[in-house]
């Protein structure tokens, strides 16, 4: 259990580091999007799927906030859509 919590903390800190490094000027993300990205990651993990790239969680967080479907060719977005309210563009990879 401690290992899982340690992993979650490391992932959350990675998102904080992304925010500190790039901020909203580059990504269009706001502070709440980073918190939501961490929550999306944990939701997928709880449901048995691991998102491999944390930036995908941040993109999903912004897309959910803006109610914008994501056009993708990445398994991470398919996993996020299965376990969250992320909408995928109809022309996305299957």
Automatic annotation (TrEMBL):
The keyword Ribonucleoprotein does not apply. One of its GO terms (molecular function) is RNA nuclease activity. The keyword Transferase does not apply. Keywords: Hydrolase, Magnesium, Metal-binding, Nuclease, Toxin-antitoxin system. Transmembrane segments: none annotated. Signal peptide: none annotated. Residues 9-82 form the PIN domain. InterPro entries: PIN-like_dom_sf, PIN_dom, PINc/VapC_TA_RNase. This is Unannotated protein.
